[in-house]
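Incident log, structure service

09:12 report received: a user says their structure output differs between two submissions of the same chain.
09:20 pulled the input from the user's history:
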Amino acid sequence: MPGKRARRHFSQLSEFERAPIIGMKTAGWSTRRVAGQVDRSECAIRNCWEQWTREGTHAWKTGSGVTRKTTRREDRRIVRQALEDPRVTRSTIRAEVGVVIVPQTISRHLAEANLKSKRPFRALPVTPEHRQLRLQWCQSRSLWNVPDWQKVVFSDEFRVVLGTDDNRVRVLRRPGERYNSPTLFYVTLPGQLV
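09:34 re-ran on a clean worker, output below:
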């Protein structure tokens, strides 16, 4: 992580700021004094000066970092598959694209497209029949007293997962698409529970 941190501090400096930093350091100013003058961190000043003394240039090299494993076309294909089928998994996408990439790469491409993996919204279908069944259930228990309700077990359906996979269905969706039909599951319950 130190390399990433140093890169982040160095990239805070604009091209306009880097030249005066080199000038001040060449004139013999201390790193602390230069940092106070340009209002940047000492680490950023130190990194800029070290690159100047090592390479003779203060420009940040382009193209540094890991080489891309996917093309722009494959990136678009990854996002398109997630949009066509919100329930698609990362392993399925990887098999469809045909490129050897890690699942984190797929997640990163989906995050760039603002697609997040969420649990689907579960909706109860409220048809006239369901309304009638609910009304009957309430009316049959309207005269219950405290001892009658004490015989009922209420559950919050708490779920314990001991492994890494909870076997829950996940959908990929953008913020605000919670109630869209492809990412919406209708739950069917037995008539006596509705």
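09:41 both user submissions now match this output. Likely a transient worker issue. Closing.
09:42 reviewer note: The longest helix spans residues 42-55. The first strand starts at residue 116 and ends at 118.
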